[in-house]
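quick one, 154 residues, struct below
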Amino acid sequence: MENGTTPDGIGHDIADALGTLLKRSVRATLYQELTEHLGEAVDEVSYPVLSGLARTGPCSAADLAGEVGLDRSGVSRRASRLEAAGLIRREPDPTDGRSVLLTLTERGTETVAVMRRRLAARITASLDSWPPDEARAFARSLRRFTEEGPFGEP
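---
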């Protein structure tokens, strides 16, 4: 049977497609487009920190590092740039006075909203040639795959 027609083939096809999506160079190019003209501190390097904080809410640099796939010091460096630009702030952790939480400011939240609108528009444009029912089915299936598949929350 041809690749993609057996259950294993389907898994390989999906793994290959995900590999393309997850390539650092692909992400960097996309992040560059999404952050264009949003200020000096907002770029493809700081995008994961802003986006991660929007997903997690206030959290420590160590926790955010695990969420976005960076080390703690990398998150801290990026957070310092974003803090200087007024996009995030550091606050004492109310549950642990020794710890500091990173949190988005109002301006940071607005910046993330712009990036998300840009991403949604880019995705929508890439699906323009698809029949609407196929695009909706793809969106439902992708949501289900991320929730129930190997990437879902334990």
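The mean pLDDT is 88.
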